[in-house]
Amino acid sequence: MTTTKRSSTPATGSSGGASAAALHAGTSDPRTLILGNLRQSGIYIALVVIVGLFAVLTDGVSLSPGNITNIVLQYSYILVLAIGMVILIIGGHIDLSVGSVVALTGAVSAVLVIREGHPWWIGVLAALAVGVAVGAWHGFWVAYAGIPAFIVTLAGMLLFRGLTLRVLDNISLSPFPAEYQQVAAGFLNGLFGGQGFDAFTLFIGAFAVAGYAVAVFRTRVARIRYEQKVESFPLFVARVVLVGAVVMAFAWQLAHARGLPIVLIVLAVLVLVYGLLTRRTVFGRQVYAIGGNLPAAMLSGVRVRTVNFWVFVNMGFLSAVAGVIYSSRSNGAQPAAGNMFELDAIAAAFIGGAAVTGGVGTVVGAMVGGLIMAVMSNGMQLMGVDQSVQSVVKGLVLLVAVAFDVWNKRRAAGAR
């Protein structure tokens, strides 16, 4: 899908010339189209295949408006965790404690709001503050004390699970007030009217498609201007049309259910912000540099300790966001909340294309990986598959994803 064809417009040319070149650059060679960008395109193909498979196996129930809404509500907190996890993995780290932090932050919020009667937003702010403090705790030991992240966060998994039990006195707390529940269970519906559907949801979907099309075209123009590899223009158009069709179909189903979930808006904002952070900022490039080649990053003047500290602070913050969403979704706090969430987040990052050695991965890829896990889990639940079988399938999918990453690297090395 990629090529080394150079732009007919010099790098210093006008944007209009680059835009014209963007209409003709690329290649239609079948082998290049299939293999040239296999790492990035494979997960999207896998998602489409899995969605189609479960649509057939469940007689279309998995694609019903109500079920699609349930997938968004049930797995949103895993997708939030996957954003922070993929950034950590890109930087060459991992966090095994996020499930315990989800439980602790939800517990702190529940104690303040349910037991002590504070306003719901006090609980949210307190949960976020605790998450940031946990991230700073991990960041200190990893970045400044030099202890491997695996050990620090393994200790944190035990430490913060124990603190959760202490905070809750080993009992569950519920229910939250209605305002708090709206975080994960609220919807925006009826703002633009519509007969039998929510027009506002369709408007947001169309706006997202238009924004995506403009963004990817500008990226294509910029790459051509700097004589970088791009896909052929027909393939580029096909990709934009396909993504647009999928997004609008998704919005159509939501519009015919309960409207636009508030938690989906939160997730979309996070994806947009962190997508820009990782791709467009100095901090994001430094994270990639540290994970890709630590000695070179240090020689280039990257403040490795500072960057490592802040990626853990960020992970703590996103764990708290996930904790608020999960406690809102479950309408309470439980001592066992967040169990195994860290494994789901790690799996989403690796299935989405992150490399075990660091330096590779994207936020969007992690989202797709998380959606693959969500669709698989939801589909198997609709089919009544035993929980033990579900775990086996998830484990095999993760193993295949990592094996594919290893094979792809060897293929690329052989090509050189």
Please give a structural write-up:
The chain is mainly alpha-helical. The chain contains 17 helices and 2 strands. It has helices at residues 15-22, 30-35, 38-57, 65-90, 98-115, 120-144, 149-168, 178-185, 199-225, 233-255, 262-280, 282-292, 294-299, 304-330, 341-351, 363-382, 387-415, and strands at 187-188, 260-261. Helix 4 packs across helix 10 (233-255), helix 4 packs across helix 12 (282-292) and helix 6 runs antiparallel to helix 14. The longest helix is centred in the last third of the chain and has 29 residues, at 387-415. Residues 1-15 have low confidence and may be disordered.
**What is the mean pLDDT?**
85
Shape: globular
- Total number of strands: 2
Distance between the termini: 17 Å
Nearest-angstrom radius of gyration? 22 Å
Please give the order of strands in the largest beta sheet.
1-2
Order of helices and strands: HHHHHHHHEHHEHHHHHHH
Number of helices: 17
Largest sheet: 2 strands, antiparallel
DSSP strand content: under 5%
Low-confidence stretches: 1-15
**Secondary-structure class:** mainly alpha
Percent of residues in helical segments? over 70%
